[in-house]
Each structure stands twice: as C-alpha cells, then as structure tokens.
Amino acid sequence: MSENNFPVKSFLHDDESGLGFCLRAVAANGGQFSSLRRLLSIGSSERLKAEHAARLAQWFDVDRAKLELRLPAHLHIKGGSRRFCYGHYFRQPGALRSNKPQLCTECVFEKGYLQDVWDITLSTCCLEHRLL
C-alpha cells in the first residue's frame, strides 16, 4: 500500500497545519494515525517531520514542497540545533507544539481543518472566537 496513493484526496489549505492535514487526510481514508506511523516505519514517540514529506505527499497526492514547509525539520546549524518550519528557524525547542497541540474548536468546525497558527506556541487564544 505504501507505493499507492490513498483513494480519497484531501486539499492542503494555505493556512493548514502540516500535522493537521496528515491527520485529516488519513482519517478521510478510513485510517488512523497509528497506521500512518506504521507505513512510515516510525515509532509511537516519533513525530512527523519534513523528512517524511516526500512519501506523505505521494500518498496524499499533494505538493511535496508545500507539505515539507509545514512539517518541522530538526537542523544542526553552526551554534547549535534549530527547528525549521513554516519558513522560519526556531531556536528554542518548545517554540513549536509537537506533543501538546492546541486548537480552536470553533475554527475547526467552521473551516474543517486545523490552522497552522496553532503549531506555534505563541498562539494561546483565538482572536476571532475569543477562546483560550
């Protein structure tokens, strides 16, 4: 199955979370996140990363570069390691939410997907719906 595309196609929105898209796309195909981890041969504690984008993009039939930009990459750069996501470098490991995601339930209900702003720890409330 790993060579084939998933039959139900999902559109990757311009402001959608990379992880949120993967969860939505696998669910639309009747799968679970644990099955996606098995297909990628990653353990239960490992997160989806930019290095997985090529395979995920092929399976979900989306642009690889767009998906790769929305999944974190762990880079070892002169002066230490940093995470790169959404076109920005993050020096502090906790700057990106990877194990305790937050979201605005009203936005998800209205839009049908998880926005990328919730992947960054600076976002703690929804300005539109005034939810914490």
Structural class by helix and strand composition: alpha+beta
- How many β strands by DSSP? 3
Unreliable stretches (pLDDT < 50, length at least 5) are: none
| Alpha carbon gyration radius | 15 Å
Number of helices: 5
What is the residue-mean pLDDT, rounded to a whole number?
A: 87
Biggest sheet: strands side by side, in what order? Answer: 1-2-3
The residue fraction in helices comes out at: 25-40%
Strand content: 5-15%
H-E string: HHHHEEEH
* N- and C-termini, Cα separation: 40 Å
Strand count, sense and barrel status of the largest sheet are: 3 strands, antiparallel
Shape: globular
List the helices and strands and how they pair.
Layout: H1 18-28, H2 33-40, H3 53-60, H4 64-70, E1 73-77, E2 80-85, E3 88-90, H5 105-111
Antiparallel strand pairs: 1-2, 2-3
Helix pairs in contact: 3-4
Care to describe what's here?
- It is a single chain.
- With 132 residues, the protein is an alpha+beta fold.
- It has helices spanning 18-28, 33-40, 53-60, 64-70, 105-111, and strands spanning 73-77, 80-85, 88-90.
- The protein starts with 17 loop residues before the first helix and ends in a 21-residue tail after the last helix.
- The model has no long low-confidence stretch (mean pLDDT 87).
